[in-house]
Each structure stands twice: as structure tokens, then as C-alpha cells.
Amino acid sequence: MAEGIPTGAAGRAAQAIAKAAAYALMSLFALMTVYPILWLVMNSFKTTREFQVNQLGWPAAPTLANYAEAWSYGEFGKLFPNSLLYTFGATAGIVLLSALAGFAFAKLGSRATRPIYGSFVIGILLTVNTLMIPLFIEVNLLGIYNTRLAVLVVYVGQGLPMGVYLMTEYIRGIPTALVESARIDGAGFGRIFRSVILPMVLPVATTIAILNISGIWNEFALINILVSKTELKSLPLGIYKFSGSLSSDYGKQFAALTIGMAPMLLFYLAFHKQITQGVSAGAVKG
Amino acid sequence: MKQKKILFALLAAALISSLALGGCAKKAKVVTLKVMNYQQADQAGYKEDVKIWEDFQKANPDIKLDMEVLFNDPYHEKLQAYAAAGTLPDVFYVWPGSRSAVIHEKKLAKDLGVILGTEYLKDFSAAATNPANQLGMYMAMLPQAYTYTSVMYVNKKLLADNGFEVPKTYAELKAMVPKLKAKGIAAVMLPNKDGWPMQSCLFSTVAGRVAGDAFLRDVKAGKAKFTDKPFVDSLAVIESLYKDGIIAREDNQVGYGEAAGIFASGKAAIYVDGDWRAAAYITDKSSGKALIDPKAQESDFVLAPFVSIPGEQNPGVVSAVAGCGWSINGALKAGSPEEQAAVRLVKYLYSPEVQAIRFATGQYVPTRKGVKADVEPLVAKVPAFYAENDKTCYVVDGVFDPAVYNVLNSGLIAIGLGTKKPAAVAAEIQKAFDAWKAAAK
């Protein structure tokens, strides 16, 4: 036994102290993460007047009026379905196209593979701000400004660089012998993709989906310039109607923020197991 | 009989064709106007604003409004995108200064001085119709308000309860500190966690009085420097306010949104903010509650200019800036139905009826003369404040680029916290100004 490591009762006591300290530290971090959310939800039930004089306490007379007014002023009834469509539609597109491209880049190499793959990956380095005005001009020229198609196409395009990169690197880890034996058995590339590759890339597909679902749900800058009609906008644009440096009605603002945040929290609560597994599995090359 | 039939057929044909033509003519008359509205859903007057637009639409069936509603930075980003693509809306909301620089500098809006005409504009204050108050030196927009960014909201009753009157000089203000401090009351409250309030709501007035607008113009033209005595002396006044305990150093950790409630709860005798803050105290229509009861607004509170400062060159001036307003797309063809519809909409938005609603909901005091509204006492005191303080000076962030005034904002926080001296802050601002000027060449 190594010298210096306490044994017996003293050792158990030291372990218990270390465990307690670790728990205390983790509880502190958990509190730092959860408290702002609780504070936001708590204050969303106060009137602005009450909030201005009581920012930390529980609401004296909780009101749901903030939620009703935020829903109506923010026109969330119109924005909610759009958010769902953009988030899940674009994510499905990103995952599918990334998988197809990743398969091609990793297993069907040609002389064009390197430059095409490079052109995808370089997209990771481009910031949204540099693309905003060129994209706006482009969708105008294409005649798709103010359409859901424009939003979906741009979101898919924005998510592809990272998706293609992750997918390609993951598929590279899949033994090429599997593809070759399927070819020998007479399977075409489409069949190989469906029956061999697709089932094997589920972990990284989950990772890509998680990254994109939260990103697109909260995306603001691009959709702001891609559409002008309320019926085409998404939740973040509605929520932003409530935020200003001279803001006067915090109750509605907090209610709007809670409405925007709730679906993602529910999503996490419902799928936290898969999300944790997906992130860790996707982080390791196949 | 045959003649009758022919006559009937002709009449029927005439009727059908006139109906058809009438219908066509009617359809042809509907003009679609693309409008970009700047609207915050949690702001006082939101419901009223929605109704203002609905009323216009109802009263003008020959105009169809295609509205886009945005707020804050997204509004400006979208306007920039429209300007870059050459697809500006027909009517849009614009700032008189650098926030809407692209509109002014590229002259993307029509000259309202020409299009609305002097006869129409004579009903507005001279400051609002002066093209020199806009960045492009022409009337790209018509300011709806002329905003005073520096007002002392004074709790007169609290002062009287402690044996003080509304202070007029720095010495009077300083004399209040010990007694009020002993009771846990701040003499002057100025929340500055957000950086801009000190610069916009107090320093600009101090600089206007100590250094003057001419000095700031000279700095901009390269004929003077921020490191010159008048500007350093202005910063030194701010340093004194903290050193003398008139403003607590802790105010640099108070968020802008928190201060109105703190002042209303009687924890400060004086609160320095812009005139727009009066709206925070009026009765909330949904809850029927007010931060300050209307009766108390009338009897216990007054609005006053900041106290006189030792050594000031321009006594009594208060920082003020032209407010936002509406512009018409410069690309609209002169005399076209679109231009006529845009003018009709703009005239409606500046009408006494609409401006009275804006005034009544505490959004601003209109530049249109003679607008009357039933407002709560504190808001009613704002036009009186304007009348008593007609000498104005620049707001620093309306004169210089963000690259320059952001350094000033940070410097004022550092002075407030006691970590930097005025001369050092002045040197930093001059450095930022030199860098901005070099980059702009």
C-alpha cells in the first residue's frame, strides 16, 4: 500500500470530506446555472411595478397577465409553428446532407474531394455578421426573400460546414472493408449508404442535431434579414420586441423570455439521456 | 320593339362597362406602401401605437400598408441591409445622428423640408426643422421630439422634510450630503452600470457648461484636443461629485432599469436622467398602479436643471438632442402615387391627434406646437421644463463616433470608481479619437 494514504476510519473521514467538498462545489455551480432561470421565471409572475421595488423576493400577488399579454403582443401564436418548422426542418436537412456528403468525402474519394471538402470546412470560419448583407442581396436576387424556403436554405447552408466536417471525420473511422464487401455483394452506393453507413452514424448524427436544434431555435441575426412578414418570423424576433435599454415593462419581458426558453428546457428534460450520450459518443471518432 | 331591345342592350353594355372600368379604376388606385416601424412591445403606448396604424389603414382604404416591425439593433441592422441592397422601404424610422448615418450621408431619404413645405412645417419647433441638427445637414427626417437628456428629478418633499430646498448651486448640493447620508439617503442618484447614463445624462451638460459646444466642434475639427483644460476640467467636475459624496461610487454598479424604483422608494433625494424617464412614474394602465402616485407627482416632485457649477462658461445650458422621426424613401418617383401616399402617411403620423396620443402616453413631448393631452403631473412638467431651460448644448454621443464616446463612457466609470484621474481619461479619449480619425481617412 502506498505510503501517506490514510486508511481505516481516518481514510473514510477524509474521503467523506472530499466527497462533501466536491458536492458543495458542484451544488454551487448548479445553483449558479439554475438560479438565473428561477429568478427569471419568478419575476415573470410579478407586475413591473412590483419588480421595481422587489427584485429578489417571491411575487406578492402572482399574475399570469404578463404571459397573456406577452403571447398576444409578441404574436407568438404565429411565430411558434415557424420556429418548429425552421428548427426541425433545417436540422433534418443538415443531418441528411451532412451524412451524404460525409460518406462521399470519406469513402468515395476522387481528385475533386479535397477542394470540395475544403470549401465546406472553410465555412466554419465565416461569421454570421460577414455574411448578412451578401446573403440579403443574394436572396433578393433569387426572388426568395420573405419566404420560408429562404430561411430553410440559409439555415441548412449555415449548418453544413460543421455537419460535413464531423460526419466526414466520423465516417473515416468506419472500416472501408465494410463498404468494399457490400460492393462485392452487389450493393450500390445508395444501398450502402442506407443499410451500412446510416445506422452507424447515428451517434454523430445526434450530436449534429443537438448542436443545430438549440442553435437554430435561438437564431436571430439571419432570420431578421431574411424575412419581414410577421407570419414568417420565428420566436427570437418576437422575444426581441420586448428588450430595450430603456425598457419599461419587465413583467412582459420576462414572460416573453420564459416562453422562448421553455421549449428548449422541455426538450432537454425529455431527451437529456440521449443528449448526453449523443454528445459524448459524437465527440469520439468512430 | 327592336329599338327597345337595342336600347336595352346598349344601356346594359354601358352599365357593365362602366362598372368594370370603375372597378378597374378603383383597383388601380390602391397603393401598397412598405413601412418599417420601430416598435417595442413592452413600451408605454404600445397598444395605442398599434391602434394608430390600424386607424390609418381604416381611414385610407386606397393605401395598403405592408408593415415590418422591429426594435433596437435588429431594426438598424435590417435598415443597413435594405440600404446596401437598394431596397429601402417607402416610409421608415430614422435617427437624426450617427445611428442612421447611412441614410443621412448617402442622402437616401427625401428632403422633407421640400416635400412637406414651409407652410406645413411652421407648426413645428424651430429646432426640429433646422437641417443643421441632422447629420446630413438636410431634412432627411422630421424629429418628433426634442429630447433633453439631463433632468434632475427632485423629491421636493423629502428635501423639505430634512430642512433643504431644491438646490441651485454645487455648494448647496454638497451641503446636503452629510445629513442625508446619515439617514441612508443618497443626495443624487445616477445609475451608471450601463456606461451611457453618466455621459448622456450629466457629463454632456457639464461639458456644455464648462467647455461649450464650440470647443467640442473644435475638437472634431482637430483645432482642439480632449486633453485641453476645458475638457479635463469637465471630467474633474464628475470626479468631484463622487469625491464629495454627492453621487455614491456604488451607483456604478446600479443598472439603468433599477434606478427608477429606487428613487420612487425615497432612497435618493434627486435622480438624474433624461426627460423620457418621466413616463416610468405614471400610472400603468394594465395594473392601475404608479411608481409615484399622481397626487404626489404634483405636490412632491419637481424637474430642475443640474445645479450651477463653479467656473462654468455657459451657465444653465442643458444637453439636448433632436429625437427620431419618419423618413420617405428618396428613390420614390416625384409626384408618383407612392410618393403621395407616403406623404399622406407621414402627415398623419405627425398630425395633432397622433402626437397628442404620443404625449398622453408619456412617450415624448412633441415638436409639433400646441399639442394638448391629458397627462399625469410629472409628464406635464416636462414641457414647462423645456420652456424654462431653452439654452441647450450637445449630447456627446450625438457628436462623436461610438469608437470615441465608448472610451469616454468607460472613463467616466473609472473616474466614478476612483481608479483613474481625469487627465488620464482625457488622454485615452484623445487616443481613441486620433485612431478613429486615422481609420476614417
Q: What can you tell me about this protein's structure?
A:
The complex is a heterodimer of chains A (286) and B (441). Helix content of chain A is 75%, strand content 0%. Chain A is mostly helical and 286 residues long. Chain A has a single domain, classed as MetI-like fold (Orthogonal Bundle), CATH 1.10.3720.10. The radius of gyration of chain A is 25 Å and the shape is flat. The model of chain A has no long low-confidence stretch (mean pLDDT 87). Chain B is of the alpha/beta class and 441 residues long. Chain B folds into two domains: 154 residues, Periplasmic binding protein-like II (D-Maltodextrin-Binding Protein, domain 2), CATH 3.40.190; 224 residues, 3-Layer(aba) Sandwich (D-Maltodextrin-Binding Protein, domain 2). Chain B is 50% helix and 12% strand. Chain B has 19 helices and twelve strands. A five-stranded mixed beta sheet of chain B has the order 2-1-3-11-4. In chain B, helix 2 links the parallel strand 1 and strand 2. The N and C termini of chain B lie far apart (89 Å). About 2% of the residues of chain B have low confidence. The chains are: A mainly alpha (286), B alpha/beta (441). At the A-B interface, helix 2, helix 3, helix 6, helix 11 and helix 13 of A face strand 2, helix 3 and helix 12 of B.
Question: What is the topology?
Answer:
The complex is a heterodimer of chains A (286) and B (441).
Chain A: H1 8-43, H2 48-53, H3 65-73, H4 76-107, H5 113-121, H6 128-142, H7 148-172, H8 176-184, H9 189-200, H10 202-217, H11 221-226, H12 235-240, H13 250-283
Chain B: H1 2-29, E1 31-38, H2 46-59, E2 63-70, H3 73-85, E3 91-94, H4 101-105, H5 112-121, H6 126-129, E4 142-143, E5 146-148, E6 151-155, H7 156-161, H8 170-182, E7 186-189, H9 196-210, H10 213-220, H11 229-243, H12 256-264, E8 268-273, H13 294-300, E9 301-304, E10 318-322, E11 325-328, H14 337-349, H15 352-360, H16 377-388, E12 392-393, H17 396-399, H18 402-417, H19 422-440
Parallel strand pairs in B: 1-2, 1-3, 7-8, 10-12
Antiparallel strand pairs in B: 3-11, 4-11, 5-10, 6-8, 6-9
